[in-house]
Amino acid sequence: IMISPENQPNMQIAEKMENALSIVAANHDIKVLRRVPEQRTLSIANTTNRLFTAAIIDLETLGLDPANHPIIELGMLLFNFSSTDGVLGVVETYNGLQDPGVPIPEEITSITGITDEDVAGQVIDWSLVAQCLQRADLVICHNASFDRNHLEMQAPSFVQDIVKDMAFGCSLKDVDWRSRGYESSKLEFLNFKAGYFYEGHRALVDCWATLNILVGEEGAFDELKASVRTRGVLICALNASFASKDSLKERGYRWSDGSGTLPKAWWTTVGESLFDEEKSWLDEIVYKSKNASSSLPNKIITARSRYSRRSEKFD
C-alpha cells in the first residue's frame, strides 16, 4: 500500500490501515516490509546531557580501489546523540554528485543507477562537507575501510586533512550482527530482517538505512561506540615458517606480499589487552622460541587510524 505525501489519509483511515497491517503481519507466511524512514525526530529537547554529533557518510565510486577510482556521489547525514539518551535526532543531510571526468562503466550504472548524464558538470560541495565534518565527533560508515580510504585519497586535500584526524566507526564490523541473529551484515539484509526495504546504492539513501539499523537494533549504537573507544595492536609475523601458515590462517592472520604498505609477512590486529597473549601464542606455536615475538613489527591502532591504509604503515 503506497501513501503519497500529497494524499495523506485521515487519522481514522490510517488507524484502520495499521490494524490491517498488524493482522497481515501476524500471518507467519507473510512478511510486511516498511520503507526505511528518511525523517527522524527523536530529539529530547531538554536533555541535560552533553550532546555529540556523528556523521554517517556513504560514497558511490567508480570501483573498489581508492587510489584509482574517483568518487561520483557522496551522502552525509548528521545526527545528535548523548552518552545516555542515544540517538536524539537528525540535524542535517547532504547529497552531492561528482563528475569523474571519464565515462561511468555500465557495471557501475547498473549497480547505482547513476549515469553520465546525471553527473555531467556536477561537483560535490566539498566546503560544506568539510564544515559538517568539523562539527562531528565521530564518522560512521557501513564498511568504513572503503569510504575512509576513498575520502583520504580522492577528496580535495583540505577534506583529506580533516578526515585523517577523525575517529571512525564501522556499522559493518564494529557491531557483532551474527551474535544478534543476523546471518549477514550487508546493509540491505540487516534492514530486510528488521522489516524494512529501500532502494540501495544511492549515497544518502544508504545513510538513512545505516541510521535505521543503529536506531532499530537495541544496543547496536552503544556497541559501535564501545568498539570505537577500543585500542588495537597490528602485529606482523615476520619470517614465519611455511609449516605455520595454516595455524596463522586459522588464527585470523592475513598474508601481505610486501607490495603494499605492510612488509612481506602474515599480519593481524588484536585488542591491546590481548597483545601479550598473542605474543605468547606466536612464541609457542609459530616461532617455538621464548620471546621470539618481542622484536616483531607492531603498532597501536586507534579510531583515528582504524580502517585507513595509514594504519598499515610503519615509520
What are the defining features of this structure?
single chain; 315 residues; alpha/beta; five-stranded mixed β-sheet; four-stranded antiparallel β-sheet; 11 helices; 33% helix; globular; disordered N terminus
Q: How would you describe the overall organization of this protein?
A:
Helices cover 33% and strands 21% of the residues. The chain is built from eleven helices and eleven strands. Strands 4-3-2-5-6 form a five-stranded mixed sheet, with helices on both faces. The termini are far apart.
Gist of the model:
By secondary structure, the protein is α/β, with parallel strands linked by helices. The protein has helices at 11-25, 106-112, 116-119, 126-135, 144-154, 157-163, 187-193, 203-216, 220-229, 245-250, 275-287; strands at 34-35, 52-61, 71-82, 86-97, 138-141, 168-170, 196-197, 232-237, 254-256, 265-271, 298-301.
Secondary structure layout:
Elements: H1 11-25, E1 34-35, E2 52-61, E3 71-82, E4 86-97, H2 106-112, H3 116-119, H4 126-135, E5 138-141, H5 144-154, H6 157-163, E6 168-170, H7 187-193, E7 196-197, H8 203-216, H9 220-229, E8 232-237, H10 245-250, E9 254-256, E10 265-271, H11 275-287, E11 298-301
Helix pairs in contact: 4-6, 5-6, 7-8
Shape, per Cα inertia axes: globular
Strand order across the largest sheet: 4-3-2-5-6
For the termini, the CA-CA separation is 59 Å
- Largest sheet report: 5 strands, mixed
Class from helix and strand fractions? alpha/beta
Order of helices and strands: HEEEEHHHEHHEHEHHEHEEHE
**How many helix segments?**
11
